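[Discussion] Sanity-checking designs against the backbone

I'm trying to build intuition for which residues belong where. Below is a structure token string of 85 positions. I'd appreciate it if someone posts a full sequence so I can compare it with mine line by line.
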């Protein structure tokens, strides 16, 4: 996976690290909430589930031991790189 891939395209079960977030794509309150949950540059994440209808919203991601539901538009603002662990 190249560094330019976004979190919304990460396959279920694949581990990745967030390398960049385009916070300008998000409303300030949403960006603050995501940061408070630890979803920021450097965070290690795994997509655990996708919406049931054609992979639509939401995405369920694991951040540490916590599962967080993200809208696809939020995940699209996050560039990730695949990691082995």
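Best answer:
Here's mine. Compare freely.
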């Amino acid at each position: 996976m190249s560094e330019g891939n976004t979190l919304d395209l990460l396959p279920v079960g694949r581990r990745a690290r967030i390398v960049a977030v385009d916070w300008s794509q998000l409303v300030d309150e949403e960006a603050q909430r995501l940061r408070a949950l630890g979803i920021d540059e450097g965070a290690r994440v795994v997509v655990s589930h996708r919406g049931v209808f054609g992979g639509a919203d939401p995405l369920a991601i694991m951040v540490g031991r916590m599962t967080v539901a993200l809208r696809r538009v939020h995940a699209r603002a996050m560039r990730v790189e695949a990691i082995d662990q």
